[in-house]
Amino acid sequence: MSQHAVWMSFRSMTADPSVKDQKLKPGTVKRIASYAGPYQKWLILFLITVVIDAVLVVASPLLIKRLIDDGVVPGNSQLVTTLALAVGGIALADAIFSMIGRWFSSRIGEGLIYDLRTQVFRHIQTQSIAFFTRTQTGALISRINSDVIGAQQAFTTTLSGLVSNVLSLILVVGTMLFLSWQITIFSLILLPVFIIPTKWVGRRLQKLTRDSFNLNAEMSATMTERFNVSGALLVSLYGDMKEEGNYFSTRARKVANIGISIAMLNRVFFIALTSIASIATAFAYGVGGHLTINKEITLGTLLAITTLLVRLYGPLTALSNVRVDVMTALVSFERVFEVLDLIPMVRDK
């Protein structure tokens, strides 16, 4: 399984599943779509690169099939050279389109972040002094930073992932069915074995990640309170330096411990994905090997299917949690809109 597929599966599995139960306000989606207007041209070009990249996913295995069946087996060295160069060219084209897609994604994403941040900042400046006395500064900064970044993913990561995964799944499954329906059906039967463990690990990772954010926030709050004039003066006059050090050390140790747990679970997640995909590939070689021996499929077909198989489970896993990904991005937009919809208590005349 590719690193990109593993990452997309990881991101999907670690999203907070509770977000899918939230209800959006009427008109939210239409309002979100209005932000795509200035980037419509870039979005179209970006989606074109995503489509091309998905097509290239199945093009290479099909060329490998022909290289083996029509080149290696008959001993046609000229065709082997030509098709080998073609496979290399597809790999190069895939890398180029990935880079182009990344450029479009960055341009759209950073543009949306800029638009939302400046709009939120200017709107907050119109609020009265009373607003700032009753509002936590950290909450406002979170809206400008975290929620804005989460919102822009609706047009980049979530949209591209949805289009890419759906198209890749259709092309890969369709090609596999065309090459050998027996191996394809067998591979799809193994899907629950692939998804169930990753779902469990994903839920555990989501909880640990949320706890990690809370612990880091507590540690940051402690440093903020102590590392200013009033805090330092208070500790100097009434506090105990050793006790303060132990207090901070306890929080820092909790952050370190949960960081170790997250790192190990991340590794377990990665190993689970790659191992199950490898086991499925091994079974495919076993089933396909017997079909090849019995002359039901060719050797090139077997190699093409096993190549496609490692590209099947990533999109399947990501799409199994697509509703969570979409709602996460939409809720981030809605949280930003809550700030933009605040009416100043005092308006300038």
Count the strands?
0
Main sheet attributes: strand count, strand direction, barrel closure: none
Distance between the termini: 62 Å
Strand-residue proportion: under 5%
Task: Estimate the mean pLDDT confidence.
Answer: 78
How does the helix and strand content classify structurally?
mainly alpha
Q: How many helices does DSSP assign?
A: 14
Which spans of ≥5 residues are poorly predicted at pLDDT below 50? 1-7
According to CATH, what is the topology? ABC transporter transmembrane region fold
> What order do the helices and strands follow?
HHHHHHHHHHHHHH
* CATH H level, superfamily name: ABC transporter type 1, transmembrane domain
Question: At CATH's second level, what is the architecture?
Answer: Up-down Bundle
CATH class: Mainly Alpha
Radius of gyration: 26 Å
Helicity range of the residues? over 70%
Overall, the morphology is elongated
Number of domains: 1
What keyword list fits this structure?
elongated, mainly alpha, 349 residues, disordered N terminus, 84% helix, 14 helices
